[in-house]
Design brief:
Elements lengths: L1 H19 L2 H16 L7 H20 L19 H19 L3 H12 L4 H8 L3 H24 L1
């Protein structure tokens, strides 16, 4: 059991932090995710089950808080340390624009885009983690990217 925790802790922590952007509640969600995992029948793909549990915990929290319509998105970019101040400012503005545009698309599209392009999972992995068909993942990705492009264009116009 300790091996599973050590192997998947960082990925689950980052996933929950990315969905909530609230470090104050991430530890509680991570702890609850592993507790719930330990009370289930164990499966071959622990990470898939852990992501599913974490996702459900976050979604339940936002439903209770009636905040599901807007899940702020951030992910720490450790490469920023080597950039010049002007580059950091430009990147920061671009990232903020991206997050504003992401916040405007449907949650199911947003989640697929996060897992596909930010977490860099394959279509098959995303389908497995979210309990969707691969066709649904591809459709959500295409629709999400289309919406995202439209929102990015509007952000630039403002």
């Amino acid at each position: 059991m300790q091996d599973i925790y050590e192997q998947h802790y960082e990925a689950i922590y980052q996933y929950i932090l990315f969905l909530t952007t609230n470090p104050a509640i991430v530890d509680d969600f991570v702890q609850e995710t592993f507790i719930r995992y330990y009370h289930t029948k164990h499966v071959r793909n622990e990470k898939a089950l852990l992501i599913r549990i974490a996702r459900n915990l976050v979604y339940d929290y936002f439903r209770r808080k009636q905040l599901l319509k807007w899940l702020p998105l951030t992910k720490t970019d450790y490469e920023d340390e080597a950039l010049l101040p002007e580059e950091l400012l430009l990147r920061s503005q671009e990232v903020q624009e991206l997050y504003r545009a992401l916040a405007k698309i449907k949650v199911n599209y947003r989640e697929v885009i996060i897992l596909r392009y930010i977490e860099e999972l394959s279509v098959k992995e995303v389908a497995h983690y979210l309990e969707l068909s691969e066709v649904q993942v591809k459709n959500y990705t295409a629709q999400g990217l289309k919406s995202l492009r439209g929102n990015m264009g509007r952000e630039a116009d403002v």
